[in-house]
Design goal:
alpha+beta, 5 helices, elongated
Length: about 110
Amino acid sequence: MMPAKFKMSKKGVGELLRSDMVKAEMVRRAEVIRDVAVSIAPVYAGSWEATPGLYKASFVVSSRTRGGRRKNRATATVTNTTYYARWVEYGTEKVPAHHVMLRAAQAGGR
């Protein structure tokens, strides 16, 4: 019985990483992460959040070609567009860190 042989094509792998199929999978995973982030995001009725629920409603998924050494790989990114998103994520001396994006990526990135 002959052992199986495999010869990788770097050009083929590059084409795969730029393909619409990989881009669609990256977007699907980012949307799962976004959904988890929305479900665990805190809502403050305090004075620092002008519109309660704005942080929760401000998660967006974007996709573009930028990864890899040549910056030509499909990527998808989850961001929160509120100016205070970093304070919710990492906390301040008055606001505890919630690590919403970290926990969402850990839970939903599978």
